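For the sake of transparency, this paper describes our internal protein records without simplification. Such a record has a labelled line for the sequence and another for the backbone structure tokens. Nothing more is needed to write down the fold, since each code stands for a local backbone conformation. For reference, a complete record is included directly beneath this paragraph.
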Amino acid sequence: MAIIFVVLCGFSFYMGIIFCSEKDRFESIYNQKSIEYLKESSIGAPKESSISSLQLKYTSFPECNIEYQDYTPCTDPRRWRKYGSHRLILLERHCPPKFERKECLVPPPDGYKPPIKWPKSRDQCWYRNVPYDWINKQKSNQHWLKKQGEKFIFPGGGTMFPNGVGKYVDLMQDLIPEMKDGTIRTAIDTGCGVASWGGDLLDRGILTLSLAPRDNHEAQVQFALERGIPAILGVISTQRLPFPSNSFDMAHCSRCLIPWTEYGGVYLLEIHRILRPGGFWVLSGPPINYKQRWRGWNTTIEAQKSDYEKLQKLLTSLCFKMYKKNGDIAVWQKSPDNNCYNKLARDTYPPKCDDSLEPDSAWYTPIRACIVVPDPKFKKSSLSSIPKWPERLHVTPGRISIFHRGSDSAFKHDDSKWKKQAAYYKRLIPDLGTDKIRNVMDMNTVYGGFAAALINDPVWVMNVVSSYALNSLPVIFDRGLIGTLHDWCEAFSTYPRTYDLLHLDGLFTAESHRCEMKYVLLEMDRILRPWGYAIIRESSYFTDAITTIGKGMRWECRKEDTEYGSNMEKILICQKKLWYSSNQGSR
């Protein structure tokens, strides 16, 4: 028995080595993208050379029923009854199984118009594009928005800043001077309302990702994106947010009503995980300034005092220190190094996470009640060590070493390559770089090179990294850009008609073995605005099939050569048409 046990252990160890090496090889292949090989091998190849292409039969996709005009497949209120309300689990991602997927085109609302151009869109949008009155009626005294004729106007108010977000942020900058000198570049706003805080910070050089669930507030994230402000659907509940550890320079909650100290403090532990060492957490609203405010919160001063003491105790246990406080705003700073974590006793709560939990794992990863301690190898990723904006955009991040073959030269090459490709795209789409394109998504980026190349244009870019690839999001956040993990076999966490431009580079080459092309393209159609563009850079094997599906979705596509003039790879420039529901859809 002992001999058999030893043999089995040895065999398991051997198989584990093989599995891990194969996994590394697969991830390396994915991130280098087989399409890169096609580019290089095709340079100098004869023009007559060609490759076979995938052919599909033309299918015209029907319209969805008009009631699906705001359809969000993975956060669909129609499916909430299947999930419990405990910890708001029903607001998390719950994607429909394949047999329940919609194979139809999501219609725009009646009277939909092309969105108002940036920067005017920050202050107004067409009512018919986001025809929801709940916030207007319930929050009218707080000046979130107001309806004027055919438009919603955004005065810049909020629950904690009814007199205007500008004065609120001015006070915050007085408390945090790092907001003024380029030290703070990326922020996350949890429970963002209509994203007025994030919108104001854009003028101050801070790129904020506004986060809110689809709930009774009706379309918070849709309002944000209609305004041209970065936002994504999400909720802190039982699963980690889709961001790596040590990502954001600052996190903000303005009366977001998240119960920070409940359930073992897991919600605050998640903020701690995604906040960069030395980063700031800003809280306004209960229980801050409870001595002055408690009467308006339908509570007692004793209860608010207890909540504040619990919060302060939890933050101290997570190695946060009170930075500054003034009136309704309190600011804490995460420990800039590991000295505090090294002093934590083994029996303290929350405990430090063990090595079995990958800090950057963030796609359907359960939140655990433990402290994710920053890796001491990446000391230069702390807020005090990382270069200030805009210098950090083109400085090779230290965390690039997590990649197979990741190096300074590879990063510089990628940066240079995307400058050329972005310039070429602008020749293909003259609207790119003008006020006609604001919300951009790079659907399968690696280092965020496309976003970096557009940094001086009036756009913001959502950088998406495949959950099945090596997680390059730490590099993207270290550059001062924003992004998220996602699996394109599922629907993205956004409302319909929220992006002006979608870009993909070899996505089907990398993912067609997992994700059915038809569903990926239908999802692209859902989130793309009418008259919006899709730049599809793909192997010639896929381009004809994509064109056929695009025609069935009422897209107009044209095929273009790449910068290299290769037959192995082509660029499809597709544009979505504006159409209105015929009220005959039944899907």
